[in-house]
Design a protein that fits this description.
6-stranded parallel sheet, 4 helices, about 20% helix, FTHF_cligase-like_sf, NagB/RpiA_transferase-like, LUD_dom
Length: about 180
């Protein structure tokens, strides 16, 4: 991906009202802990394949992703932390494919706060066609461009209608 395209990607995410953070691998656990603390999260939903080290610095109660969890139970969780399958610079889109480090689709749609970790540069592509090449169309794909939002007939923006009100994206440098 060109350096110019890459440099615009975080701004595109911010245009969609995602909150963008940058760190390296060593700072990731501390950043996640700080974001959960700042948010006042008492509980965090954890996909089964999420790297345990990502939550090592936090004392927040971890809630496992269980198939039998009801929407009401999921709504009681303060935050969710996931990885992603791919991110598209051109559109500021993050794609989840239900892999073990991302969990089932509903865990990212019910809690009000989603922290998504993106490895840079390996998970970032320039365009939608390049992103599609990396995805399996048989998997449950969730395409995210900022926090959930809609507009009414008067174009008043309302966030959190069918997903989290707050999306925080952590760009983890692999360099």
């Amino acid at each position: 991906m060109s350096r110019r395209r890459w440099s615009c990607w975080p701004r595109t995410l911010a245009d969609y009202r995602a909150i963008v953070h940058r760190t390296d691998g060593e700072g990731l656990a501390g950043l996640i802990a700080g974001l959960l603390e700042k948010r006042g999260s008492a509980s965090v939903l954890v996909p089964p394949g999420l790297d345990e080290g990502w939550l090592a610095a936090t004392g927040v109660t971890r809630v496992a992703d269980r198939a039998e969890s009801t929407p009401h139970e999921l709504d009681g969780v303060d935050s969710v932390v996931t990885a992603c399958a791919v991110s598209i610079a051109e559109t500021g889109t993050i794609v989840l494919d239900g892999s073990p480090d991302q969990g089932r689709r509903r865990i990212t749609l019910v809690p009000d706060h989603h922290i998504c970790v993106v490895r840079v540069p390996s998970q970032v592509v320039s365009s939608v066609p390049q992103g599609l090449e990396r995805l399996d169309p048989a998997r449950p794909l969730t395409w995210i461009s900022g926090p959930s939002a809609t507009s009414d007939i008067e174009l008043d923006r309302v966030e959190g209608v069918h997903g989290p009100r707050t999306l925080e994206v952590i760009l983890v440098s692999e360099d």
